[in-house]
Write a structure and sequence with these properties.
about 350 residues, alpha/beta, D-Maltodextrin-Binding Protein, domain 2, 2 domains, five-stranded mixed beta sheet, about 50% helix, disordered N terminus, disordered C terminus, ABC transporter substrate-binding protein, signal
Length: about 350
Amino acid sequence: MKRFKYLAVIACVFLLFLTACSGEKKTNTKVKLGEVTRSLFYAPQYVALEKGFFADEGLDVELQTTWGGDKAMTALLSDGIDIALVGSETSIYVYGQGSKDYAVNFAQLTQTDGTFLVAKDEHPQFKWEELRNSKFLGQRKGGMPQMVGEYVLKQHDIDPHADLQLSQNIEFANIPGAFGTGDYQYVQLFEPTASIFEKEGKGHVVASFGEESGTVPYTVFMAKQSFMKENEETVKKFTRAIYTAQQWVAEHSAEETAEIIQKYFDDTDLDILTSSIERYKNQGSYATDPILKKDSWENLQNIMDEAGELPGDAPYEDLVNTDIAKKIMKENRRWQSLSFLSLENVTHHYFTKKM
């Protein structure tokens, strides 16, 4: 009886192998994905694309960069894209406007703020009070970088609007250039720009807003309710691919990740990409699973409320769907528990028994 069971398992594995190698071409499901900006902060997403994790799920993902949270949400709501990778605050803004087919967050990619405080001059023993009365180049009003920045400053008893010479009139894409050529003393920058500025002697990283602000659903994959209802299997496959990529990034070195995604940052040296990814990994910026936790959601609302940008109550139960992510992780644990039933292990077990 046992022999029959072992042979049956071997036969099943063999049939699966033959099916996978049969050469039958299947039409992949097209998914239009819009990212809010091109950022090293989104490394797991690029890994999913380059390692073929989406393709393995039968998805043909078309990536486009929208260059702005408002533009990403406009594209999502008008069906210009199917899924958006953007800050969770945008879903709260849409919900607050009374939209019936609002966006739902279903897979978290980053779980901290991704900006660093960069100073024009060196500050070996930096203290936050040094910011008082300084010329500070801030981010767009109402965006996550600016709200987190204000939240952190207030935690250090600094009123960003009263204690700083704060500028918020520069477009996101132009902020690095404006800081480099202007007389600003401090700025918030993402990687790899922060490291590039250090390498070129244009600035010095003196603090991390990600470390100061705690866990927050900073960048999340979201889709309209209608899309998720009509394409549940597609969303599930998408989430599975992202989870696979998250695990891959967590288990591999920063340099390995940098080499795979370098094509997305072809104007940045590999050493800068590597050090930037390492910096993000060290502070836990990359989520290791797609589940957006309730305490993180509440932290987000606190940050928005502190900045005066929270339009109203944003129920976790309405705006966050963790069911799909939980199913994916449960399936993964089940598969891991059965991994000993690989063809090699089964045949080895069977033949050593017989010998």
